[in-house]
Fold this protein.
Amino acid sequence: MSDFDDNNDSDRDLPINGPDGSPINAPDELPQADNDPASGGDSSAPDPPNGGKLYSGLKQRIITAAILAVVYCTGILLGILVHRFFYDFFILGLMIIAGLEVCRAVGHRFAKPLSGFVVLNAALGFAAFMTVTNAFRVGRGGITSFFGVLGLMFIACIVFCMVGKKYNMNNVISTLFVMVYPTVFMVYMLSLSYLSFYEVMSPFQHPAALGVILTFGGSAMSDAMAYFVGSAVKGPKLCPAISPKKTVSGAIGGLFGGIAVGLVLLLFAHFGWLGIGALSDSAAVNTLHFVLLGLGTSVFCQIGDLISSYIKRACGMKDFGTVLRGHGGFMDRIDGVILAGVFDYVYLFIAAFFI
C-alpha cells in the first residue's frame, strides 16, 4: 500500500517481458505514468533547474497523501464515532474502485475481465452482507452470503459468455480472478465493523474500533517505518525479482512499526479510549495479544505489497490506476491493507473464543 518508496512502488525498475518472453522497453512501449515522482508529471514540460522536477513530484505525492489521509480518517472515524454505515459505504466504494483498477491491469496483458460483473459482484455481495447482518442479525452469515453471491455471479458470467460470441472462457477466468482479488478479500475489512454483532464477541467493548484502526493504522505505520529504516540502513534486497527497492532492513523496520501501533492500541484499551477494551484479564496475555496483532498486521501488509507488485509485473503495468497523482490508483494504496484486514479479522474472531 505504501505511500513511501524505498520499499515500495518498486515495479518501475525491472524490465517487463512481452508475451513472447522478450523484454519490453518500458519507456518506448509502456506509457510513462504521470505519478512517477522521477518523471515529475508532464514530460513535455521543461525540466526545472536545481532538481525542481524531482521536488515537484515529491510535493505532489505529499499533497495527494494528505488528501487521502483526510478521506480515510473521515470514513473510519465517522464509522466508529457516528454510525458504522459510514465505514461500510467507504469500504464499498473502495471495493468497486479497486476492482475496476485491477480489471484495467489484467486486461492490459490477459483476456479482458467483464467489469460489469465485477461491479455487480461487489454491489450485490455488499447488499447480501448488509441484509443478513443487519436485517436478520446473523453476524457470521454476512461473509457466507458474500461468498454465495460470488458463486452466483461466476455462474452468471459463464452463461453470459457461453450464449454470446464476443467473450470466451478466458474472459470468465479473468473476471473470476478480479471478483476474488481484491473484492472478496475486502469483505473481511467490511466485517471488522461487525465483530460486535457476533455472539462470541461479547467480551469486547468495541472490537470494531480495534480491528479497523489496527488494520489501517498498523499498515500505514508499517509502510512508514519500512521506508525510513530501509532508506537509512539499506542492505540486502528482500525480493529483488519482484520488488527491487524493498530491503530486508526495511521489512524489519516495518515489523517494528506494526508492533508500535499494537502497543498504542494497548494503551487505548487500558484507558478505554474509543471504547476499545482488553483482550484478556491477564496483563501479560493482553500485552502479547496486542503485540501479535501489530506484528501480524505488518507481516500481512508486506505480503500484500509483494503480491500486488507480482500481479502488476505479470500484467505489464506500473500502477493499477492513474487517478491519484504521485500514487497510482486506490488499489496501489490499499494492496497491503487488504490482507492485513483478513489477518486482523481472523485473529480477533478466533481470540474471542479463548477470552
About this structure: The CA atoms of residues 35 and 291 lie 35 Å apart. The longest strand covers residues 243-247. The mean pLDDT is 84. Strands lie at 16-17, 23-24, 237-239, 243-247.
